[in-house]
Design a protein that fits this description.
Distance between the termini: 56 Å
Shape: elongated
Helix content: 25-40%
Number of domains: 1
Radius of gyration: 21 Å
Strand content: 35-45%
Largest sheet: 6 strands, antiparallel
Structural class: alpha+beta
Number of strands: 6
CATH class: Mainly Beta
CATH topology: SH3 type barrels
Number of helices: 3
């Protein structure tokens, strides 16, 4: 009886692992995001720790053992009203560099989504 229960449990466990865990990635989130999901030239929105929001095209990024920095070209500072609606965009030079400590979160529009 115990062997049957063990066999069924292992079978269910392996099935769940194969069906539901295919999209789970292990490792550093930064490397998974930049290494597999976006490319140079994709549009990014970078939210910083000081409450600012910048939008631009990805120019370069640190990967693996290098520093975790990202650079976007033609960055625009997105200005929002009290309700959260974007009211203006202000150009912030030719390129801007964000270090790992500056970034609160990143949203990306990948090339596949952009083509649609």
């Amino acid at each position: 009886m115990a062997i049957t229960a063990l066999t069924i449990s292992i079978g269910i466990g392996l099935t769940v692992k194969q069906v539901f865990r295919r999209t789970v990635e292990v490792g550093d989130v930064w490397d998974a995001f930049f290494g597999r999901h976006i490319r140079i030239g994709d549009w990014l929105t970078v939210y910083t720790n000081d409450g600012n929001e910048y939008r631009g095209r990805l120019s370069s990024y640190g990967y693996g053992e290098s520093k975790k920095e990202i650079s976007i070209v033609s960055p625009k500072l997105i200005l929002r009203d009290r309700v959260g609606k974007a009211t203006r965009e202000r150009l912030c030079g030719k390129e801007i560099l964000f270090t790992e400590g500056d970034v609160l979160r990143i949203a990306a529009l990948t090339s596949e989504q952009e083509r649609r």
